[in-house]
# Entry
Amino acid sequence: MRIFRLNFLVLVYLPIAIAISGQSAGPQIASPDALLRDQPVAITVTGLKPESSYTLRAEFASRAGTIWRSEAEFRADSKGEIDISKMAPVSGSYTGVDPTGLIWSLQNSKEKSPDGLTFDSDDQSVLNVMVREGDKTIAQKYIILRNRDIGVSTTEVRGEVTGTFFSSKLSGRVPAIISLGGSEGGFDRSYAALLASHGFPVLALGYFGTENLPKDLERIPIETVDRAVEWLAKQQGVDSSRIVVLGRSKGAELALVAAANGPRIKGVIAIAPSSVIWEGISQSKESLSSWTVGGKDIPFAPYVKSEEYIKSRRLIDLYDPSFDKAPVESHIAVERIAGPILLIAGKNDLLWPSSRMADAIATRLAAKNFKYKVLNRQWDNVGHHVGSVPNRPTADSVRLGGTPQSISKAQFEAWREIIVFLNSLKR
# Structure
């Protein structure tokens, strides 16, 4: 097996705070210079004219360099300060008191940034916060939002196991995680980086849609996860008796199937989960299972293409009736999982009925007298992106259900649930 080691390139220089006026006593933006992605950004502005109006503008450059922008007008208090954690904007991209409002309300401006150093990456994003008086910028600060904290290193793994291994910063043997992405394929590096930044060794495992792996999400061997468990158990700092699988969407389906068939897996975190095994996703005209075991298709729920789906082409209109008619043998035997389970779902999921399926999992486990802890966490007005990495624009996320503000709030809460769940597995 070939293993390639990569060093984390830290952004060596970024203008952390700039008082455009050139006067140290002028307006200043107080906030952390850098923080982990699942921590809310606290922004306070001082040195302003009391009871005067100012605009706070935030900008974020996507991986392609496209600028996302939000703006909110505030009125400084009697001390000449603005604290967005306590004050609601007078007008702008969001309403109400919300310390994360400037981030989740970012919108695609269609403009391009010339500064490649600030482009989004697997490791970090850079938020540019400005204070404007009229059409003049009077203070500015760059805040680094880290997926991968300093001290977390990566190892590229190729061979029987394909993925990226993120080592933790902690010493000793701790629970380790296999992270599985969804139907987009490839590696789920951003999730893995943030989990490792909290002290857990993580393997972002590829199972299709990348080098030397199946092109389509069809007939994927669950032994792919078994081999990953074997590999991860041998790594430094890993407690081989406490390996957890985290998956989202189709990755959550695989996580539950693999854990139900793999006794070495001692816990599952299933984000926007499925309670059944679904037909594969491919260009093939033949209906085949998403997963195999021992080279044989695992019984699956075929797609039922209703009249409503044919008209709407919405995936929820495909999955809802298909779930209602799912064969008994397609339901995942989650009661065979050898550890606690955390379910995370949005009640307004417009991709597939993850809320209903999470309830089905919890109901089945209760009926089977499952001996481990089961946490079924769900959020109103939130869709398929319920468990995505926080502190990101959520305007585009509404196409899969929910409202931008509710999605953002749920993402922070879901990540707190995830970290608490993982910390509970430590000895």
